[in-house]
Amino acid sequence: MNNNEGVGKDFFNQDEKHVADRWRDGFAGYDIDHKNKNKKITNRTDLKGADDWWNNLSLEEKENAFISVCKKIQDGDILKQNSYRKMLKYIFEFESNMYNIGIMCGYMEIHNKLFGGTELEKMSFAKKIEIIQNKSKTEIDLKNNQNISIKLLDDEKTISIIINNLETTYDRNL
Fold first, then answer.
1. Which residues have CB under 8 Å from 86's CB, separation 6+?
2. Interatomic CA distance for residues 98 and 101, integer angstroms
3. pTM
4. How far apart are CA 164 and CA 121, in angstroms?
């Protein structure tokens, strides 16, 4: 059975607006219920309400909010390395309407930078470097007491890979 079986031939000849209208009409009831359920949140077009809320908190309430959010980010972004969607759904326990709000307030950028930083940290403990160019591969094996630092140079076009020699932990007098 192919994926198009049971779908009328005229479906694929319709313009995009008509298809979008049919889809929207088909889910109109769900959409209205969903919007009403989350009306307080989904009507946000700016984030001023959140700033007003924050400004009215006591110092202790601000500290508790900060601690809670930091713990959630540490758990989900750093330890579990969740996707952005999983962070919103399972760690923060938000509905899907918060996806765009998370983008608007900058959380997606924070999430992506944290994930990249975690990967960079893992890379610094790699024990082999491979450089592949034009079907030619060069490998550099690192010793147990070596790690690497990866830096983007000031021209933002050059990556510098530095092999660091770490101190060994043995007693020299033995």
1. 76
2. 5
3. 0.50
4. 14
How far is it, in rounded angstroms, from Cα 92 to Cα 86?
Answer: 9
Position 141, amino acid: D
pLDDT for res 57? 94
**73: part of which helix (H) or strand (E)?**
helix 59-73
What does the alpha-carbon distance between residue 137 and residue 121 come to, in Å, rounded to a whole number?
24
Sequence-ordered list of residues with C-beta below 8 angstroms from that of 22, at least 6 positions apart, any chain = none
Mean pLDDT by 10 residues, the chain (174 residues): 48 57 58 49 65 92 95 91 91 91 89 78 83 90 86 85 80 50
Residue type, 52: D
CA distance 123 to 117: 10
Using alpha carbons, list the distances in angstroms from residue 39 to 36, 52, 98, 169.
5, 18, 12, 60
CB burial of 83-93 (b: ≥16 within 10 Å; e: otherwise) equals: ebeebbbebbe
Q: Is the dihedral of CA 80, 84, 87, 90 positive or negative?
A: negative
